[in-house]
Write a sequence for this structure.
């Protein structure tokens, strides 16, 4: 009988590197189509049924915004050892040394720095105009998912990581590297969704979840990884290199 105790799941196959590209109009994610349909239906009722032209035009603008909010563009994801890719579109609102949340610790959890008891947390804030599809920061399997109900304070505030509705993920790569990240609801967001389950295998940059209407994602970097973004910088989910292994110093830059 074969011994399967040490069998590991192979990493997903690498995708071909593109040598050219054309602009593609983003599709609307299936989770958003019902909202778009409702908005369009109200627009037709106001504009054509009730002949309320001003309200109809206003609702038409809202319909366009709802469609744009749920847009799901394709992304070209960098592949390589020692890279962590941004799981979210938006602005880096914080880079800080923090203790690990208890939802990411314990058996099968992440480890903090032995000397300081902290890890580097990179927070990406998504406003209502950003794409809200979240993507896997590394390739591997989903080791843990933990949902926590909570409040809906401004996701740009530090206390949002502790008070708001949120959902934690731990993804473990083929080399044993584990990355934790957390979807956090904001002032407007009232629904966190995930497209994966514990044990699922994901490719780097693969779609893993969605937060509706304004939110934030926190990424907890493993030991040996250094942030490659700056506070105030904009990130693109599935494309921006958020952190790199073996880089001794933080990236420096200036707002101008």
């Amino acid at each position: 009988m074969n011994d399967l105790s040490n069998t590991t799941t192979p990493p997903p196959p690498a995708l071909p590197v593109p040598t050219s590209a054309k602009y593609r109009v983003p599709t609307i994610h299936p989770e958003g189509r019902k909202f778009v349909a409702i908005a369009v239906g109200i627009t037709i009722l106001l504009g054509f049924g009730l002949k309320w032209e001003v309200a109809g035009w206003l609702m038409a603008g809202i319909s366009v915004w709802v469609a744009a909010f749920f847009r799901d563009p394709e992304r070209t994801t960098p592949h390589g050892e020692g890279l962590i890719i941004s799981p979210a579109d938006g602005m880096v609102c914080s880079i800080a040394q923090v203790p690990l949340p208890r939802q990411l610790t314990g058996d099968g959890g992440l480890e903090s720095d032995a000397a300081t008891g902290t890890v580097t947390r990179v927070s990406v804030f998504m406003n209502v105009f950003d794409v809200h599809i979240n993507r896997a920061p590394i390739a591997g399997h989903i080791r843990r998912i933990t949902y926590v109900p909570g409040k809906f304070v401004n996701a740009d505030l530090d206390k949002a990581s502790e008070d708001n509705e949120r959902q934690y993920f731990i993804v473990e790569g083929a080399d044993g590297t584990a990355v934790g990240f957390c979807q956090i609801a904001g002032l407007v967001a009232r629904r966190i969704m995930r497209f994966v389950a514990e044990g699922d295998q994901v490719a780097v940059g693969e779609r893993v979840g969605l937060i509706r209407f304004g939110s934030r994602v926190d990424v907890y970097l493993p030991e040996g990884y250094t942030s490659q973004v700056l506070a105030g910088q904009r990130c693109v989910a599935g494309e921006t290199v958020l952190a790199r292994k073996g880089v001794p110093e933080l990236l420096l830059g200036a707002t101008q």
